[in-house]
Design a protein that fits this description.
Order of helices and strands: HEHEHEEEHHEEH
Helix content: 10-25%
Strand content: 15-25%
Structural class: alpha+beta
Mean pLDDT: 94
Distance between the termini: 40 Å
Length: 212
């Protein structure tokens, strides 16, 4: 889909889900943020409000978060069609009803919602979901790979659950020990600085693999 039409849909969905998320914590990522002229899908990163919505009297349905409720409402309105049956996942994938927007796509068009919930850090999530993550230029993987292996991540650290941890905080399966907290990275620039990269415009992000 062309950039202009993809932006129209993405901005509309962003506006619709924002009331169900923390203030200012919904961002469009992926190819749209990198301003690709040909967009294959929409990626939206969101930090949902975690308090369950108040049940409606007489309605047996309950929702874990206001965002779950909003997405359900969009399904019922036939604006989105779910392809992700597990509602507890941190990634939710839907097909978009393009007829609503007066648009068409040869193979349909998806929106992927990436939920930034604890222990995930907003700054890390934004960098990874902005990408790119293609075989030719996998900037996201470059940011997750330690420097001794050619990436940008300082040795002695790992990224798990979209958060940065020191090696001594993780067990043999690279899972955080109980009670451990990740490095605080509330903004995208926090993670980019930690990687030693500094600010890079999304459209100019390229994996700078190092060889030994």
């Amino acid at each position: 889909m062309n950039y202009k039409d993809a932006c129209l849909i993405a901005e509309d969905l962003k506006t619709l889900i924002q009331p169900a998320c923390e203030p200012g914590s919904v961002m469009i990522g992926g190819g749209i943020r990198r301003k690709k002229m040909d967009v294959h899908d929409i990626e939206i990163i969101a930090k949902p409000i975690l308090k369950p919505p108040v049940p409606v009297f007489g309605d047996p349905r309950t929702f874990l978060t206001p965002l779950d409720k909003k997405l359900y409402e969009l399904e019922m309105a036939k604006r989105l069609y779910s392809t992700s049956p597990n509602k507890g996942e941190k990634k939710k994938v839907y097909k978009i009803n393009l007829d609503y927007y007066g648009l068409q796509a040869l193979n349909g068009f998806n929106v992927e919602f990436y939920l930034c919930t604890p222990p995930a850090q907003w700054g890390v999530g934004i960098v990874i979901r902005t990408g790119p993550g293609s075989d030719e230029n996998n900037f996201s993987k470059f940011c997750l790979t330690q420097r001794s292996q050619g990436g940008a991540l300082p040795d002695g650290y790992r990224v798990r659950h979209l958060a940065v941890w020191s090696a001594d905080q993780l067990d043999a399966r690279f899972e955080p020990f109980k009670g451990e907290s990740p490095m605080e990275m509330p903004e995208e620039m926090d993670f980019l600085k930690f990687l030693g990269l500094g600010w890079i415009e999304p459209a100019a992000r390229h994996a700078g693999w190092k060889t030994r």
